[in-house]
Every structure is written in structure tokens, then in C-alpha cells.
Amino acid sequence: MIDGMIGKKLGMVQIFDESGHAFGVTVVEAGPCTVIQKRENSKVQLGFFEVKESKVTKPRLGVFKKAGTVPFRILKEFSAEDFDSLAVGQEIRADIFNPGDVVKVIGTSKGKGFAGVMKRWNFGGGRETHGSRSHRIPGSVGQCAWPSRVFKGKKLPGRLGGAKVTAPSVKVVDVRADENLIFLKGPVPGAKGTIVFIRKK
């Protein structure tokens, strides 16, 4: 079967295990995804999040018309073991995952805007007493006459978050294929409504 699918992060809820202990899980609306194209190297292109034709460029609209499907906003390629048995236009649902599976989740982290070194890099900051004026600044950033520049990769203030993040080991707690829902225990990047890609390990 396909090694992953596209989903939408809905938020977090609390559930109970068999012994009665409560723990938090992230609810992801996984699909249903539609097979748009069958590519080389046993890969298939899936579509998710149906949109109007006016929201899609004409070249991409031609791809959907060739596949005989409605337009989708998100397209992503995944590997498929049973490549030959898949058909263009076929729906892929959440039941490709099973409770107990360990997956990796790829998404865009929450954007937090421009941040200083203490928030962005966990700097300790300067002393707070005895007339110090260096409380939250980064401090020295370079050398004197040589090399007269700041080395690349120096930890400095800048934009924090809003980057591609992969959570490598997230456990599937429950799957509700009839509702297209997957319950995941572990870090799932992004805010509510973020598009995520779930891949089998």
C-alpha cells in the first residue's frame, strides 16, 4: 500500500488508556486523498483539500481533468508497494494506518516572528545588576581586525518558526477510518488547520 498520506491538523484532545490514565493526543484529518497521477519509481501523486476551479492555475487544472477528478489544493508524492493495483482517481483513506504504528509527521512549525537570542537560541542573557546594560543582547559576535566579518551560522536574532519540521517518531493511538481521523501521540508540528504529511517508517 501507499507509505503515507496528506492530513490536516485539527487540534488536541484527551483520551484514556486501558488502565484509566489520561494523556493528550493530536487529532489529524487524514484524507481522503485521491490518486492524481502514477509516476516513475513506483510513486503516486495524491491530492487533498478540494478547491474551486478558479483557484487553480490552468496547467494544473489540465492535470486534474486528465485524471478525471476535481481540483485539489495540495499535491504530494508517496511511494507505493502495490503500485500496479492502484488506479488514477482511487481514494486513499486513513485505514492504511493501524493503531500501534510509528510514523513520522512533516509540517510547518508555528511562526513566531522576529525573536531575540534568548528566545530563539536559549541564551542565558547578561547580568541583571551592578549597572549592566547588557540584559538580553547577544554580546560579542566577531573578532577584531581579522577576519573583520561575522562567520556564517552565528547564532543571532532573526525569524523564529515557520520552518519545515519533521517529527521522527509519532505513535498512532487510534484510527477512525469512517471519520477520516487519526489520533497521534507525540509532537505534531504546526498550528490548528496546518497541512501535515504522515509517512510510515
From TrEMBL:
Question: Is Hydrolase included in the keywords of this UniProt record?
Answer: no
GO BP terms, alphabetized: translation
Q: For this protein, what is any one GO molecular function term?
A: structural constituent of ribosome
Keywords for this protein: Ribonucleoprotein, Ribosomal protein, RNA-binding, rRNA-binding
User: Sorted alphabetically, which SUPFAM superfamilies does this protein's record hold?
Assistant: Translation proteins (SSF50447)
- Function according to Swiss-Prot or TrEMBL: One of the primary rRNA binding proteins, it binds directly near the 3'-end of the 23S rRNA, where it nucleates assembly of the 50S subunit.
Know the name of this protein? Large ribosomal subunit protein uL3
Per the UniProt entry, what species is this protein from, by scientific name?
Desulfomonile tiedjei
Subunit details for this protein? Part of the 50S ribosomal subunit. Forms a cluster with proteins L14 and L19.
Its GO CC terms are: cytosolic large ribosomal subunit
In the record, the note on similarity to other proteins reads: Belongs to the universal ribosomal protein uL3 family.
Q: Does the keyword Ribosomal protein apply?
A: yes
PANTHER family under this entry? 50S RIBOSOMAL PROTEIN L3, LARGE RIBOSOMAL SUBUNIT PROTEIN UL3C
